[in-house]
Specification:
The structure is a single chain. The protein is globular. It has one domain: Alpha-Beta Plaits (2-Layer Sandwich). Helix content is about 25%, strand content about 30%. With about 100 residues, the chain is α+β, with helices and mostly antiparallel strands. The chain has a 4-stranded antiparallel β-sheet.
Length: about 100
């Protein structure tokens, strides 16, 4: 059996910070049979919003998933997908300070 590198990605979101938000986000992924391997959420500033990172395998549906998650009421917009070893967005800077 040959070892193949699996492309992974991090979907970064800024969301309102209240109960049930991540349930809505993960429910969207679940309904579309898109596997999420890990989630990291932390409050930002006063705690009214949170930065969220969802780790998953990268596939051809990712762009559509980003568009769908941005339509959720509790997502503040600006969702982005990136390789896990890059720190280009504001959300990742908050995670990795």
């Amino acid at each position: 059996m040959e070892n193949q590198a699996v492309a992974r990605t991090v979907l970064e979101l800024d969301v309102y910070n209240h109960p049930g938000v991540m349930s809505h986000v993960v429910g969207l992924f679940s309904r579309r049979a898109y596997n999420v391997e890990g989630i990291l959420v932390m409050p930002v500033g006063s705690g009214a919003t949170s930065a969220s990172g969802c780790w998953s395998m990268k596939d051809q549906r990712l762009d559509q998933m980003v568009k769908q998650v941005e339509k959720l009421e509790d997502v503040l917009g600006g969702a982005s997908a990136r390789a896990p070893n890059t720190r280009s967005s504001s959300a990742s800077r908050r995670f990795f300070r």
